[in-house]
Specification:
2 domains; Arc Repressor Mutant, subunit A; Hypothetical Protein Yqey, Chain: A, domain1; mainly alpha
Length: 147
């Protein structure tokens, strides 16, 4: 079952249960998925569906981070939205898993003692391996901590 079908089914269930916030979040996610499929002019692959979901999560987190602390209504709304969106995202890699992949990339590149000038090469090899599975900001911080 594609994510579009899964989201649509869950959205109908949320409507029947009277969960307005969940329904609104799923409706927005469904719209984003459909728009991406329309732009592409064919069905989305599983990887593309995940990228759309991760983009929605990233945008919601950025809104949460930039919202003033006194706007509790917006913070509460986006926190609930984030929880719903995360149900559809794949499980993200932890720090230890990312460090293992980084170690593998370093050995593939033959780098024993990484220097700041190597960061570009490391990231170029590393990101395709963890894309959609790990937070890019965390990956960058872990690579930077090697120097």
């Amino acid at each position: 079952m594609s994510k579009i079908d899964e989201v649509r089914k869950d959205m109908v269930a949320a409507m029947k249960a009277g969960e307005k916030e969940r329904k609104a979040t799923l409706s927005a996610l469904l719209t984003a998925l459909k728009n991406k499929a329309i732009d592409k002019r064919e069905d989305l692959t599983a990887e593309e569906e995940i990228q759309v979901i991760l983009k929605e999560i990233k945008q919601t987190r950025e809104t949460l981070e930039t919202t003033p602390k006194d706007r509790t209504d917006i913070i509460e709304e986006h926190s609930k939205r984030l929880k719903v969106l995360e149900e559809y995202a794949p499980k993200m890699m932890g720090e230890d898993e990312i460090r293992t992949v980084i170690a593998g990339v370093l050995s593939d590149l033959g780098i024993d003692a990484p220097a700041p000038k190597d960061k570009g090469r490391i990231m170029k090899e590393l990101m395709p391996k963890v894309k959609g599975k790990a937070d890019g900001k965390l990956v960058s911080e872990l690579v930077a901590s090697l120097f």
